[in-house]
Amino acid sequence: MVHTTRFSAQWVLPIFIGMSLLALFVFVRPTAALTPIPTPDPKPGSFGLEATKTQPPPTQGATITTPGGGSFSNSPITVSGICPTGLLVELYNNNVMVGAVMCEGGSFSLQVSLFAGTNEISALVYDDLGQPGPRSNVVTVTYTDTSFSAFGEQITLTSSYGRRAAPAGDALTWPLQLSGGTGPYAFSIDWGDGGKPELKSQALAGVVDIAHIYKNAGIYQINITVTDVNGVSAFLQLVAVSSGQVDGSGDTSADDAGAQAISKPPEILWVPTAIGLGLLLPSYWLGRRSQIISIRNKMLKERDNYEKK
Fold first, then answer.
1. Where are the beta strands (DSSP E) in 103-138?
2. What is the largest CA-CA distance in the chain?
3. pTM for the full model?
4. Collapsing DSSP states into helix, strand and coil, what is residue 286?
5. What fold does the segment set 160-248 form as a domain?
6. Neighbouring C-alpha atoms within 13 Å toward the C-beta of 103
7. Nearest to 103 by CA among 40, 68, 60, 44
């Protein structure tokens, strides 16, 4: 006796469904590849690694070309010269740091306040690692201003740092040393980021802390002017470095970055979607056909049973 096996149409639907699921499994990318996992902050007791970039210190220093010496009755004065491009140039007056600027295009220029009497001005260059290069030539100038005898004592504004850095969105603090003059003092601070100058008052001379938050990464030139109650002024120029990248809305913390990554709209997987849509109509048609064949077979079986009786 020969047995004939018929492949019922009712098995076609499960086969197509299985193929669809297999296609989805193959083409769907892992969720981790779509949504970056935020890096958590270090936990207590954890260990970290730190790498240090090494390079030789600068071998070429700056050269002061203006002024060449002489006497002055006004302060501040402009000091300029040549230097290696990309290095920080700090100016020293009588071994006190009185200003800093980045060397651009092989030259530098900045305003420097003078001390009463003899001023020995020199320059030092620094690379990104804070390594100094050779000291420049020394220019000697004399400053005499008889108006101070009538209006009060001369003001001196200096800092131990010609350049400081902080991540964008974080507060950049800067200690200044104010001496001389008569309080109270009025500060005008131009942070170099296009905003209005910051106004600050100080009752007494001494250490003055200033702070600012940069929204965008970059190198900024800071210009600080201080004036005492008698109208005597001093000037200081510094360089601020804002690292990282933050948009104009302000600070973005690690938690916010993680939340933004998680809330990112899901990507549409076109291949599985096309396969699913393509199989939707055939699956419906095959399901209906399978149902009709099943009902027909049942009716034929009932008819055969009825005829046998």
1. 107-112, 117-126
2. 138
3. 0.61
4. helix
5. Immunoglobulin-like (2.60.40)
6. 24
7. 60
Residue-wise pLDDT for 73-88, tens only, equals 888 899 999 999 999 9
- Rounded to whole angstroms, what are the CA distances from 68 to 81, 121, 142, 203? 11, 10, 12, 38
Equal CATH topology for 57-145 and 160-248: yes
Q: Indicate the pLDDT class of residue 297, thresholds 50, 70 and 90.
A: confident
Q: What is the mean pLDDT of residues 86-108?
A: 94
Check residue 33 and give its pLDDT.
45
- For 70-100, letters b (16+ CB in 10 Å) and e give eeeeebbbebebbbbeebbbbbbbeeebbbb
Crossing angle (nearest 10°) for helices 12-27 and 270-308 = 160
197 preceded by a cis bond (ω within 30 of 0): no
Radius of gyration of the chain (CA): 38
Task: Say what the alpha-carbon torsion angle 20, 25, 27, 32 is, to the nearest 10 degrees.
Answer: 150
Tokens representing 153?
A: 């004592």
Residue in the block written with tokens 């690292």? 243
pLDDT of residue 24: 58
Given a cut of 60, whether residue 27 has pLDDT beyond it is: no
* CA gap 61, 132 in Å, rounded: 9
> 57-145: which CATH topology?
Immunoglobulin-like (2.60.40)
The model's pLDDT over 215-232, given as tens digits with 9 standing for 90+, comes to 999 999 999 999 999 988
User: Cα dihedral sign for 284, 286, 290, 293?
Assistant: positive
What residues does each domain of the chain span?
57-145, 160-248
Q: What is the pLDDT of residues 54-63, one digit of tens each?
A: 789 999 999 9
